Each structure stands twice: as structure tokens, then as C-alpha cells.
Amino acid sequence: MSKRSVADLKIGERAVIQSFSDQLMSLKLLEMGCLPGAQVCLQAKAPLGDPICLSVSGYCLALRKSEAATILIDN
């Protein structure tokens, strides 16, 4: 079974960040508070599904779906 990513979450679903699949993107995400072990919750999606709004580290973070797909989760 392949790992799930934040892009796979349904609205209101929570998960814990495990790792990242893209090393360069991970630096950007780490700076924005997406740390391994942090809990994330999908708050909303744009009408066409991209971008998405996550709740992480106490604030809302908007990401492109392609960026969210690099955040691997365990729930």
C-alpha cells in the first residue's frame, strides 16, 4: 500500500505529517510550519479542488494540490 499524502485528505479529516517526498519542496514546507509529527486538518478546497486550505501549527495554510502531494501522512 502506498503512503497517503495531504492531497488525499477529505474536508475535516486530520492526519499527522510523517515525511516529505520532495526534498527541495520540504524546505519551503518546513519553514511554513509543516513539521514531521505535526497534526494537519484539511479545512477547505477551492471550487475546482486546487488550492487547498490546511490547518497546521495553529494557522491556516493555502497550498497547491501538487505541493500538498509531497507531504506524506500517517493517520
Shape: globular
Low-confidence stretches: none
CATH H-level superfamily title: Ferrous iron transport protein A (FeoA)
Strand order of the largest sheet: 1-6-2-3-4-5
DSSP helical segment count: 2
Assembly type of the chains comes to single chain
Number of domains: 1
Radius of gyration: 11 Å
Summarize model confidence as the mean pLDDT: 91
The ordered H/E elements are: EEHEEEHE
Q: State the distance separating the first and last CA atoms.
A: 14 Å
SS class: alpha+beta
The third-level CATH topology is SH3 type barrels
The CATH C-level name is Mainly Beta
* Count of β-strands: 6
Explained architecture:
Keywords: Iron. GO terms for molecular function: transition metal ion binding. This is Ferrous iron transport protein A. The chain has 75 residues and is α+β, with helices and mostly antiparallel strands. It has one domain: Ferrous iron transport protein A (FeoA) (SH3 type barrels, Roll), CATH 2.30.30. It has 2 helices and 6 strands. The chain has a 6-stranded antiparallel sheet. Strand 4 and strand 5 form a beta hairpin. It is globular. The model has no long low-confidence stretch (mean pLDDT 91).
What's the topology here?
Elements: E1 4-5, E2 14-20, H1 23-31, E3 39-45, E4 52-56, E5 59-63, H2 65-68, E6 71-74
Antiparallel strand pairs: 1-6, 2-3, 2-6, 3-4, 4-5
